[in-house]
Amino acid sequence: MVSTFSNSSVNLSPIRLEIQALQPQLVEWRRQIHQHPELAFQEKLTASLVSHKLGEWGIEHGTEIAETGIAAIIQGKPASKVLAIRADMDALPIQEQNQVPYCSQHDGIMHACGHDGHTAIALGTAYYLHQHRESFTGTVKIIFQPAEESPGGAKPMIEAGVLKNPDVDAILGLHLWNNLPLGTIGVRPGALMAAVELFRCQIFGKGGHGAIPHQTIDSVVIAAQIVTALQTIVARNVNPIDSAVVTVGELHAGTANNVIANTANMSGTVRYFNPDFAGFFHQRIEQIIAGICQSHGANYHLDYWSLYPPVINDRNMAELVESVAEKVVETPMGIVPECQTMGGEDMSLFLQEVPGCYFFLGSANPEKNLAYPHHHPRFDFDETVLQMGVEMFVRCVEKFFGN
Ligand code: NI
After folding, report:
1. Rounded-to-integer distance, Cα 154 and Cα 398, Å
2. Does the annotation mark 90 as catalytic?
3. Residue 22 Cα to ligand 1 middle (Å)
4. What does the pLDDT read at residue 11?
5. Over 50: is that where the pLDDT of 9 sits?
6. 301-331, pLDDT tens digit by residue?
7. Which of 80, 131, 329, 352 is paired with 98 by a 20 to 30 Å CA distance?
8. Which regions of the chain carry the CATH code 3.30.70.360?
9. Ligand 1 center–CA 18 separation, angstroms
């Protein structure tokens, strides 16, 4: 795969040379955060590292926004335009299986999604932009967000006014991405990541003897019909040009081979790109469950949650990121326009408020055995990507403000 991001100092732009010099610090911050991973809304050590560094450099910032969030302001030459950059800080409840010197020191918690890298990149970007604040015209707001993995830190940060005062005109964010090799960037206008919805359903039948079914209402048979029928929503109600997923991930019922189960429990997730589907899957799932239960004389209880809307990139901002990416990867071959995933992200909530672009930065390097998928206990990435991330943001800032 194409990987042209160059580390050699031959013929490099001044921006890259300077960011390259930051690389040892980027690695140090990333590893420090990696060693001390923290779950949603508990990112105290991470936030204190960020705040400490920003303070040391003299960068104005607010702390404890939505518990542990931070927003830093870097004022360039005075102008009214404000560009925000967002990074997430939280880790996952996973026991790390990597054997590296910077392994997680917190039992059962691990940065298995690369948010340690996101935080280090945002810090490096803040440092670089602050050093060069005379070279751009406008204001950059850097947002360090808690709890992306769930229950979601974007919403409370927006409610706390993080996009106001100064009012943000546009927003950027990136995700390190082990589905892409180092040296590539995934960016596209429109939907990049899917909406995330969850449901939980309990079927109430009537238990009894396994050999005397006519006296019972079999919740296992009902649940089996529901699981199968739910698959018809994507197959028969969704336009085949659109993409969607309905997954039943859990199904629990029964206690013994010769007992008809009184109740059955299932849970699942729904994903889609098209925002017009908001509300649709909830309605169809409930219709199917209600119809099947009614036909068997059973009852049900359904809980349904719309967690995050789809991540929708603004066309102009996506074009801006794409043109910058060409400089960073040095060839259009390194840009992956068809990159989409049914994974979700609460970056989507920021993108509902202001136009912006979220993009993937390829971080896998199979030659160094750094290609495990996100959320795997052996997830890790090629740290060269850190300087690439800073370069992307710095060049996007320049381009956005027209410098
Ligand atoms: Ni993530």
Report:
1. 25
2. yes
3. 24
4. 62
5. no
6. 999 999 999 999 999 999 999 999 999 998 7
7. 329
8. 195-308
9. 28
Say how many Å lie between the CA of residue 343 and the centre of ligand 1: 9
201 Cβ neighbours under 8 A, 6+ residues apart: 226, 265, 266, 267, 289, 300, 301, 302, 303
What token pair was written down for 128?
A: 């670089």
Beta-strand (E) ranges in 282-376? 299-308, 311-313, 335-336, 356-364
pTM of the model: 0.92
Q: Separation of 291 CA from ligand 1 center, angstroms?
A: 38
Quick: pLDDT tens for 40-99. Answer: 999 999 999 999 999 999 999 999 999 999 999 999 999 889 999 999 999 999 999 999
Closest by alpha carbon to 152, among 120, 108, 198?
198
Ligand 1 centre to CA of 176 (Å) is: 8
Q: How confident is the model at residue 1 (pLDDT cuts 50, 70, 90)?
A: very low
Annotation says 380 is catalytic: no
Active-site entry in 38, 116, 148, 391: 148
The CATH class of 7-193+311-400 is: alpha beta
CATH number of 195-308: 3.30.70.360
CATH 3.40.630.10 placement within the chain: 7-193+311-400
